[in-house]
Design goal:
Organism: Treponema bryantii
GO molecular function: beta-glucosidase activity
CATH topology of the largest domain: TIM Barrel
Strand content: 15-25%
InterPro entries: Cellulose_deg_GH3, Fn3-like, GH, Glyco_hydro_3_AS, Glyco_hydro_3_C, Glyco_hydro_3_C_sf, Glyco_hydro_3_N, Glyco_hydro_3_N_sf
Largest sheet: 6 strands, mixed
Keywords: Carbohydrate metabolism, Glycosidase, Hydrolase
Number of domains: 4
Shape: globular
Structural class: alpha/beta
CATH superfamily of the largest domain: Glycoside hydrolase, family 3, N-terminal domain
Family: Belongs to the glycosyl hydrolase 3 family.
Strand order of the largest sheet: 9-14-13-12-10-11
């Protein structure tokens, strides 16, 4: 705390301090005019700045702004530099509109494809969410604008989001739902963290001391301010104690009074209140001292929006090189209202009034392409008429290539409500089926914020997933469809075949009061790949108009200590005829057998641009965390000693090269040994196995002796192998009474084991 903050704290009254802990109105903090503490403004803005002319939330009363691709799209770029660039643009816009803090990025994990807000989130994988989230934050904050990473934590559904309690074990929190936030804190130092509405294991995030103080502040070293989501506060005093500094929006003065009364009653100390107020003052004064005048060109940003979309679109299917389109433009048919009225962003707090909309129809005209366009279905995207359908089918008969623009209307996915199905509107699916019946060269261009079912997948020639691509998606689509740009996006989430296949199908979205995360750490591809389940399109999948060869995988050392880490390199070559970009993905598989873990987990990615025939070496650095899981016994990350497989490939299901490494753990003790511990527990761990080996052999000999298999089976009703497994599974306490062994003997032996491991 600097001297300026200390001085202000000494001059503020109790009532002023309490007042600073909540908003002035919907978007601004409270000022204290007599001390020169101004009010500053925050604004929604993960994919475009939404600032209001007044104090409301109505989209129609907001200023026009450039709409960029949503998080579901930009994550598919797998490009840290691109996310940083997007952040820089938004930082400039924030400066122009005198916005202190952009309320983003949103990095919650995509637990289920049904979550209505998945369009705003980045990935089902915490490594992707953290890396790209941190890049975005660094971009925004490089312009001296602030950020607010949200929604901390486990905000993975819209159903009952204000009150539901997520029942989730600590290992799952640590491995899946918290690491993205941890990466953002440690790699980008965000200005603020926004807590979520929901409770975690019965405690609301807005007053969860373990989450906000013990983990975020003390363990991760977060230096910024924790603010509430809008209206998320229940017990303001408990929130202050838990490290929630700023409640948004204005509370009508009620919670300010709660704080004042608590201090007077002695249930909240002045030191605790000062800590909260200091974070608010630091945010305000830092903005005042470093604010810049924004200089930005909306036309340039509009063009940048198209470039970002180009990098983010994913080519899911391309049979017989159907794309890029080679037919004359006048033999190309565009079908579907999305072609002239694309869905550029999601509904809810991230929705903005876009500066300028460029559809595929608009962009085709600007490019001088005389494609034909028919609507195919009504403007609501959900209904049609026989006349519209007949017109589309008739036109398709005479076209060389049919491009169907399809997807989800905003009514299907939005903040505040979850989807109930993976299906697109029936009229769109039926239209695609009818078009494929009369034309074998049908291309589907998708507009959606999350995975959809594709009953026609085997009948179409190509599929281009555009997600919600911002206001200039049309330009990106034309460039990609006609080969001016090459698709390079990869899926940051798995597209399942059926809703019933999803990891949380049986428990999502819960019973209204609670939602049990029964799938644990097996979220997304961790579930599908571990179960070897067929999927529609796997995590990391994405095609290109060129091809890439992977070769010469090298590890810097085949065996190493976990704290030393290892360097992995591989050579990527463009073996096609056009320039392209490949997202190289590195996965780690634990083969030690010490703990139940996913088949593989993403621990590195890089996007490399290659001209035809060009090769580049891609290098990854893996540290201890790359091999570790959260050990609930020790309350720390733990990488067991043993074998691991490093896999590098083009998706989680397209592995091109593998290498085996041997890791030695820096921690000898995986858990505290008790009388309930079994020899098998210890034998699964290399360090513990060495300690127990002689005792285990003695225990086996005491029962089996020198008997042959035949002699043993004549004496016992099971095999020698089964007996050995039973000896492994018996806890130490079961030896009590055998050969005069007492519980004291057992406790002494257990203590010797623990002391040996503690050395």
């Amino acid at each position: 705390m600097d001297n300026k903050i200390k001085e202000l704290l000494s001059q503020l009254t109790l009532e002023e301090k309490a007042g600073l802990c909540s908003g002035k109105d919907f978007w601004r903090t409270k000022p204290v005019d007599r001390l020169g503490i101004p009010s500053i403004m925050v604004s929604d803005g993960p994919s475009g700045l939404r600032t209001q002319f007044d104090n409301g939330v109505d989209e129609n009363d907001s200023r026009p702004a450039v709409s960029f691709p949503s998080g579901c799209a930009t994550a598919s770029s797998f490009d840290r530099n691109l996310l940083r660039h997007l952040g820089e643009i938004l930082g400039e816009e924030a400066n122009n509109y005198k916005v202190s803090t952009v309320l983003g990025p949103a990095i919650n994990i995509k637990r289920s494809p049904l979550c209505g807000r998945n369009f705003e989130y980045l990935s089902e994988d915490p490594y992707v969410s953290g890396e790209l989230g941190a890049a975005y934050i660094n971009g925004v904050q490089s312009k001296n604008a602030g950020t607010s990473v949200k929604h901390f934590a486990a905000n993975n559904q819209e159903t009952n989001r204000f009150s539901v309690s997520e029942t989730v074990d600590e290992r799952t929190l640590r491995e899946i739902y918290l690491p993205g936030f941890e990466t953002c804190v440690k790699k980008a130092a965000p200005t603020t963290i926004m807590c979520s509405y929901n409770a975690i294991n019965g405690e609301l995030s807005s007053q969860n001391k373990w989450l906000l103080k013990d983990v975020l502040r003390d363990e991760w070293g977060f230096k910024g301010l924790v603010m509430s989501d809008w209206g998320a506060v229940y017990d303001r005093v408990k929130g202050i104690k838990a490290d929630l500094s700023l409640e948004m929006p204005y509370s009508g003065g009620h919670t300010d009074n709660d704080i004042v009364q608590a201090v007077k009653a002695g249930t909240l100390s002045m030191e605790e209140l000062d800590e909260a107020v200091s974070h608010v003052l630091e945010m305000v004064m830092n903005y005042v001292e470093h604010k810049q005048d924004g200089v930005f060109d909306m036309d340039k940003d509009h063009a940048d929006s198209a470039k970002i979309a180009e990098e983010s679109c994913v080519l899911l299917k391309n049979d017989n090189a159907a794309l890029p389109i080679k037919a004359p433009a006048d033999k190309v048919l565009f079908v579907g209202t999305f072609a002239e009225n694309p869905r550029y962003g999601g509904g809810g707090s991230s929705k903005i009034k876009c500066y300028k909309m460029t559809s595929a129809v608009d962009a085709a005209k600007e490019a001088g392409l005389s494609v034909k366009y028919v609507k195919g279905y009504n403007d609501d995207f959900e209904t049609t008429t026989s006349a519209l359908t007949d017109e589309a089918v008739a036109a398709a008969r005479n076209a060389d290539t049919v491009v169907v623009f399809a997807g989800l209307p905003e009514s299907f996915e939005s903040e505040g409500a979850d989807r109930t199905t993976l299906d697109m509107p029936q009229v769109q699916n039926e239209l695609i089926e009818k078009l494929t019946a009369v034309n074998k060269n049908v291309v589907v261009v998708l507009h959606n914020g999350a995975p959809v079912a594709m009953p026609w997948v085997d009948k179409v020639a190509a599929i281009l997933e555009c997600y919600l691509g911002g206001e200039n998606i049309g330009t990106a689509q034309i460039n990609l469809l006609f080969g001016k740009a090459n698709p390079s996006g990869k899926l940051a989430e798995t597209f399942p075949l059926r809703l019933e296949d999803t990891p949380c199908y049986l428990t999502y979205p819960g019973n209204g009061r609670t939602c049990i995360y029964s799938e644990g750490i097996f979220v997304g591809y961790r579930w599908y790949d571990s179960r070897k389940m067929p999927v529609l399109f796997p995590f990391g999948h994405g095609l290109s108009y060129t091809t890439f060869e992977y070769s010469n995988l090298k590890v810097s050392k085949p065996a190493f200590k976990d704290t030393d880490g290892v360097e992995v390199s591989i050579t990527i070559k463009n073996t096609g005829s056009v320039e392209g970009k490949e997202v190289v993905q590195l996965y780690v598989s634990d083969k030690t057998g010490v703990e139940v873990r996913p088949e593989k987990e993403l621990k590195g990615f890089d996007k490399v641009s290659l001209k035809p025939g060009e090769s580049k070496k891609v290098t990854f650095k893996l540290d201890r965390r790359s091999f570790a899981y959260w050990n609930t016994d020790t309350g720390d990350w733990y990488a067991p000693s043993g074998k691991y497989i490093i896999s590098v490939g083009a998706s989680s299901r397209d592995i091109r090269a593998t290498a085996e490494v041997d890791v030695t753990s820096s921690s000898k003790k995986a858990f505290t040994i008790t009388p309930q511990t079994t020899m098998g527990d210890m034998l699964r761990n290399r360090e513990m196995s060495a300690l127990i080996k002689d005792d285990f052999e003695k225990a086996c000999y005491a029962v089996i002796g020198d008997m042959t298999d035949e002699e043993f089976e004549a004496k016992f009703p099971f095999t020698k192998g089964a007996m050995i497994e039973m000896i492994k599974s018996n806890p130490f306490r079961s030896n009590r009474g055998r050969n005069g062994v007492t519980m004291e003997d057992i406790l002494n032996q257990v203590e010797k084991y623990n002391q040996a491991l503690d050395k």
